[in-house]
Structure formats: C-alpha cells, structure tokens
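Support request, please re-run this one:
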Amino acid sequence: MQIIKREDIPEKRQVRLTIAVDRDTWQASLARCYQGVKSVCPVSGEPTRENIEKQYGAEFLYQEAVNDTYPAALVEAIGQSDIQIAGTPTLTVEEIGADGYTFAAVIDLYPEVQLGQYKGLSAVYPEVELSSDDTEAALEEYARANPHVEHPDRAAMGDEVVLDFEGFVDGVAFEGGKGEQYPLLLGSGYFIPGFEEQVAGAAVGEERDVNVTFPTEYVPELAGKDAVFRIKVHQITRRSLPEWNDDFARQQGFADVSALRRAVMEAAVQKKQTQAAEQFANDLIRQVTSAMTVTIPDAMVENQLDGLINELRGHLQTQGVSLEQYLEAGNTTMEQLRDHARRQAAEAARYELAMTEIARREGIDITEADLDAKYQELSRQYDLSVELLRQQLPPLRLRHDLRLAAAQAVVVDSAKRK
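Re-run finished. Output below.
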C-alpha cells in the first residue's frame, strides 16, 4: 500500500486520500479469489484461471479482489495519515489493471470540539453498604444460579424438557421450525400458544404430535396457519432452590455454610463498589459532554449505530438466537430498531468526541508496549491467543479504545467526591 496523494478539504472537514495497492498484493488476492470461484464458473476445458479469464474477461475477478484488499489498505493509510475518521469513507476506484489498482477515499474527519471544564469536577459518590434487602437478594441470586438439579422418573410437569421438534404446515416442513436437543422450560411462554401445554405430560423417550395455530401477528408466511410439531423428549430436569446448609456449602467448595455466606456477601459488596464507581464516573462524564459544544456528523452516529447493532447480534448469537429471529419475535423491523437506538448512538458519539479531545489536550499516547500488555491481559481473561485477539480486535481499534479510557481516567481521577 502507498498513499499517492493527500488532499485536505477544510471547509467540509474532509480528507481525500489516493491509495495504491501494489502488484504483489493484488495478484495474491486475485489468486485467492480464483480459488473461491473456480468450482462455480463453467468453462470449456479445465477451470484454470487462464481459461476463466479468457471466457469471462480479465476483469472478472477484479471486484472480488478489490473487496478483498481495500479494507487493509485503507486502515493502513488512515493509520499512516494520523487522522480521526467520523464515518465510513466514500471509495472510488480510479485505475485498475494487472499491476494493481488505485482508489480514492473521501474521509469525514472528527468535528471541532469545544470543551468546558473536565478537570476538578465533583459528583456524589454513592455509599457502599449492604442492606438486609441487599443481603437477601444476593443469597437468592446465588441460590438460583446454583440450583438443586434432579431428573425425575415421571412425566414432565412444569419442568425443563430437552426435546427434538420439527414443524409442518400442510405436511411440509417450514424453515426455522426444527430444533434438536432444545431446552424448553414448560410454562415460560417462549413457544407459540398451545405448544408447551401439549408437551406437558410427556415422558422421556416419548414421541408425540403437537397441534397449534400460529398467531395472526406472526411472520406473514405462517400467520394464522395450522401446524403440527413432531416432538421427542430426551430429558426432564427439575430445578429447585437449594437449602442453605453445610452440605450445600461443601458442594460449592466451602468448608461450611458460614464460609459460603461470607463469600457471597464479599462478592455483593464488590459488586456495589463497582456500581458506585461506574455511577460516579457516569455522572462526571455527563457533566463533560453536556458542557461541550459540537456538531456531530450524521455519518458518525450511523457508525455508532452499526456498532450497537453488531454488539446486539453477537450477544444474541451467544444465546443461540439470530438478530432476524429477535426482530420477528418482537414484531420489529431493522429500521425501527435503529431508530430506537439512535439516541444511544448519538450519546456514544458525544462521549467519543469528548474523550478524544481530552486525549489530544493531555497528550495521551498509547505505545506498542501498552498494546502488548493489554493483549496479554485479554488473552488471559478470555483464554484466547494473542494472534486471534489481534484479528478480532485490530491494534488500531484497541489503541483508540485505550486512549478513550485513559482520557476518562483524567476526568475521574481529578474529580472530587461529594
């Protein structure tokens, strides 16, 4: 990658970079793209790259290869240019051929930020103490997280049932209507009306048909239709709150119930301390962002929105639910979800702008040693290799996040507690 030209457009707070991707990088990408398409491109004779390009044209692989190479080239160019981008750049390919290509990136820069006071602020620091209600809540939360588990030899009645199911409408299986080894808590209301009631009474190993009618407000292709789910029960699990005694404590790895209660209380105090520190910091940050003057570019808010949506998508995936299923269950469109999250995205953008300006004023810099130390910390925390973490969280992104955190520390560490 090479930056051929940089043009500053101050009246629009933009920068236009002309970037060249070299021949070696380009040809390596074309070779990778050829491997990806050769099995689906019918040609006369062997599907060699030469034959594919002869039949479809040398430019056939260009678009795929551009998509493959420009992200890394753009990130490297932005890093070399030492600029803060406010939104997704607009890209235009200017020249392209066998020796590589050049493209122009028009980049929206961070807007001008006028900060008010950000040092020596004051806020109430909540007192950290456990009330009797806090104590009972902590004990109950622990008990619910560590229930007594049994697998009764009887039919399911208000239990958690692990089952296979497959749904049919007019004898035809429909998309999204099949699950295997699926845990379902009877009475939770998670499935459509009538389903869980008909699973009740089934025994382990039993197979039965469940007849239901989809609600009229369901997805259009199934709304109001009759369906049959064929199910098979694999396991019945009964969970109940444990008794607080020495046997329960020893099962949890403690000497007796008194030691377990102390550990639960210490964890509850630590949780309240963390909440108090977060509330104190949040109050201070609100003072900083409320006092600053800035015009936030729409592109920056949209970027924040994209990040929030991707974060939600990842969280749902850990629960085995897709974002599309989540939207369907809530009878919500993607546009409605984005509109609902727009205010949160705007607040996140204000925070980023404020902390970035503080970092600039304070001369905060994140060194390679700082990055390495953080990657090592994350590696231990999530039991992932540093190499994988660098792929999932690129150094440029991590450096930015650490600068924001360091800027927030300037605000919090200089503040006074009321």
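The mean pLDDT is 91. The first strand starts at residue 2 and ends at 9.
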